[in-house]
Structures are given as structure tokens and as C-alpha cells.
Amino acid sequence: MDDQGLHLLFDRSPIGIYRSKADGTITYANEALARWLGYTVDELMKRNVQDDIELDPEIRRRRIASHFPGMTLDGFETRWKTKDGRVIDVELWGHVVQTDDGPSYDASVLDITERKRQRAELVDATQVLDQVVRQMTASYWLTDRDLRVVRTGGSLHDVLGVEPSAVLGRTVHEIQARAPTSIDLLPFYERALAGEIAKFDLEFREKHMTVIASPHRAASGEIIGVVASALDVTASRMLERRMVDAQRAEGLGVLAGGLAHDFNNLLVAVIGNAEVALREIPQGTPGRAEIETIRDTGLRAAELTHQLLTASGRGPAGTTRVYPAGVVDEIVRIVAPSMPPTIVVDTDVPASLALRGDPAQLRQVMLNLIANARDALTGRTSGHIAIRARTVALDGHVQPDDVLTPQTGAYVEIAVTDDGPGMSHEVRRHVFDPFFTTKEHGHGIGLAAVLGIVRAHDGGLRLITSESAGASFEILWPVAEAGRAPTPPPAAEARRIVLVVDDEDLVRDVVARMIEDLGYAAITARDGQTALELVATQPVDAVLVDMTMPRMSGADVIAALRTRLPNVPVVLCSGGGGYGRVGPADAYLPKPFRIEALERTLAKLLPS
């Protein structure tokens, strides 16, 4: 091709082309280049590349000084300025040629301003996407068809503790061999390479992940790899487990409460008949010792049902103002003789803190928790138990470490923390189950009773633990209201006709006999409707009502009695606990009760 043909080719090229001397003087420029820069060709020929076109002339000076005359540039990026002052990004492809005037520089110029803008936007979008993924505690990675990771993003390091450099360039098989996971990943990736979307759950380094592996397709639709994303669902899975555990515990509580109720009704008949018989049989009479044995055995059985009710959270909860500082000091002194000398116990319980509850049950809770912490540290060369208390305000939202979430309100938080071996996830799940124990000689009732007592007090319980990281039990008790005075019992009249309302014939009959033996007159009703019909036709001075009855519950009967006989004292009797959930009654008798307890209750409500 001759020079005229070359000039025509260059002039019509859509790519900018020019020739310049070492000092930047332009000796040739085509139409495309002049148009980009806002000049005519004649105007551009009067300009200097170095002084008039380069945004930073020093960049070209250094380039020429370093490489001229043997300079070759392949894709060198720099910034130029146009006639109207705009700045554009360009890419230079050129080389030095020898001319009659000496060495010159021939270059093709690509305007890459739009490409760089799009690239920057893509980087920004990628960074935003990566930030969004991080906020979702998610990670993502791309592989090629050989399942070799070519890109990662998101919270790979923050959530899983994995550096991107540890997986980039490695195949999924290599990664899994270096860091085993709960399942084999390869089948899911192979499904993605085959065009499917594979979703699976994965456990890795104590994290629960939901992973989706999808085919990565090119613009042509060809599958060129796999794109996978993993969402950290550890917190939600733990909450789901807490809910399942809570439902299981609630089911156990319902079962225990039902068994205790029915068993206590039988014990009322056993203990009541035995005590009535003992009041009539003089000391030394043949057979009296056997009846005493029957009574004492019944009382021991009653203690067992009380433990079941406590563990199920259906035992009665006290409402006394209790200062936990004194209770904690007392329990620490009790446990001290059995505490190894290598264990240090540190307490910080303000003396002014007051909670609402039963002091005896608070003692039982603290005894179980402190003894549990002691047992966790026994056999170690050193150990530390910290007991802390403070007031907290809770919003009722479920927290990941909750075993029992309290309602919105103010609570006294008592934390018992040890630096022992901690618990695995599986042990933590079952540690509050009745009869579950990890101790060689344990009975598995202690922590179950703690949970039951806290539940009965409408409190909360958290357990923060992991293997090799100790354990912290946080008990949340309702704060005692300042200045609250006890409600005075309703006035009672000195009359002595007592109505017994119970659907169990054995219970109803023996309680009536006990009342008669104490010098009162007893009338009975087998259900709530019969009782209401009785009080409409004859006067009564007190009513004993069973809590659990068909058709009308004890609560319904009490409500109806309050409307018809507002001044008649009512005693609630229950073999299934839960007095704090039913009311209002003037007194409470947990089944089975002894005749002395019945005598004291009636004497208080019906004074002489």
C-alpha cells in the first residue's frame, strides 16, 4: 500500500492515531483523534501532546526520558485534556520510528473513559453487594468447571474464620480435605455443574450454614462453573432448638403436673384416713404403729410429688420480699466445707437488691447452681466461681442463650459463673431435663428444679457456655416493688359450716371426715354447679375448692362464689400446683395435706 493509501486508511479509522516528536510536537493526527479532543485536524496539528494534551506533562517527560528512542507501549493508560477542558482516560499503543527529522513516536489511542467509568461503577456495585452480604452474615464464592475457587466475598473470614487466601486457587475437594465439614460437598457441586440448584445445610467450626450452589453460566448459557452462597443461620437454629427444648420441657411439666395431681388425690385419702384413724386410736393400741407407717409413707410420697411439681414449674411461688445478698452468703457458707481449697469464690451481690419470691426456693436454686459450679471445677488445679447480681430491664425479646425468656419488666439478675470445662451443644440441650446428669453419682433433678422454680416465679434463665469456656447461669427474678404492703385477708365471720367441692369421691369423703373430726360441720359437692346450687339454699362459712375439676374449674367456682358470697373465705386445694396462676383465694392447701395443716388454715379463716 502506498503512502496515500495509508493516510486514507488512518484518516478513516475510528481509532485515534497520531505521530509526534520527542518534544511532543504533533506531526500527524487523524480525524478520530481530533474529534475526541474537540479540535479540527489543523488545530490539533498546532498543539503539543506533552504541553497541551497530557493532563500531567511530567508523566510524558519521564516516559520519554526512560524509554526513548527504543520505546514500545502496549496499553499504557494516561489522562488527557480536551479543548473545552474535559479530562478523558486514554490507552496508548505505540512505538518509536525513525524519520527524516529524527526519531518520532507513532501511537494508536483508545478513549477508555466510558470503560473506566463502567469499571468503577462495577467495583462500587461489587463493594456494595459485598457489604450487603457481610451485613447478612453471608459468604459467596465462584468456582470454575474444575471446582477451583476463583473468587470469594462476603463474611467468609468474619463468620467462619477462613481467610480468602486459604481457598482461592484450591478445589472444593482440596478445601474439604484440609478442613472437614459435616457432609460431603462434592455431590452438591456436581449437581450444580449439571444445571441444578442444590440447597443443603452445613455445620462448620460450630457454625450452622444454609448453602445454595447454582450453575454459573456464561452469556452464551454455557455452564462455566458454580456460584455458591452460604448464610449463617447459627442464631436462628439455636433459637429453634431452644423452642423445641422449651416445648419438650413444657410437655414434661404437663405430664408431671398431671401425674402429681392424680397421685396427690390418692395421697389425700391415704394420709387423711390414716390421720383420722390415729386421732381415734390410743397410743399402744395394736395396729397403731402400722397406721403410722402408712401415714409416714404417704408423706414421703407427697415429698416426691412436690419435687415433680417443682421441676415442672407448677409448684406454688412465694411473693415475699427477699434480699438475695443474705441468701448467697448463707449458701456459700454451707457449701464452703465441701469446696476444694483450689477454688476461689467471689461474690458481688448488693445488699439493697430485693426480689419477689419464695426465700426457701431461692435458697434451693442458689444451692444447686453453686454446687453445680463446684462440681464442674472439682479435680482441677485451680478454679474460680463468680456470683454477681444486678437489676436489669428486659424487653421480652428472645436472646440466643435463653433457656426461659421472661416477659418485659424489671428483674434481679443473679449470675453464677465458673471457669470450668463448659458444656457441649448436646449436653446444654439436655442439662435441664429431669433425670439427665453427667455426674457419676448425680440424680438429674437439681437443674430441672432450678428451671421449674424460676418458671413458677415468672422469671427467666440463660445459660452461656461452650466447651473449654466455662459456664454462666443467669437467673432473672422479678424485682420486688418498693413499698408494697401485703394485702390484708378478707374479713371472716365466726361460723363453722365448711363446704368441700371436689370431683374425687375418696378425696371429698376423707376431707369431710377430717373437717368433722376438727369440730366443724361439713357438706360436700361433687362439682362446681352442685356447689353453687348448695350455697343458694343454705349458709356456709368457708369453702374448700379443688383446682382441677371437669366442667367448672376451681377458678370458675371461686369467681362465681365471689359474686354470690363475697365475704365467705375460700381455700384452694390443688394436687397439681399453680396457685399463683389461679385466684383469688384466701388460702392455699397443696395436696396431700395433713389434718394439722387443715386445722391451722380453718382456725385462721374461722376464728373462735
Please name the defining characteristics of this protein.
5-stranded antiparallel sheet, alpha+beta, 19 helices, elongated
**Widest sheet: strand order?**
12-14-16-18-17-15
Percent of residues in helical segments? Answer: 40-55%
Task: Summarize the main sheet.
Answer: 6 strands, mixed
Low-confidence stretches at least 5 residues in length (pLDDT < 50)?
483-495
Oligomer: single chain
Helix/sheet category = alpha+beta
Gross morphology = elongated
Number of strands: 23
What is the average per-residue confidence, as pLDDT, rounded to a whole number?
80
Radius of gyration (Å)? 43 Å
> Can you count the helices?
19
What portion of the residues fall into strands of 2 or more residues?
A: 25-35%
Distance between the termini: 135 Å
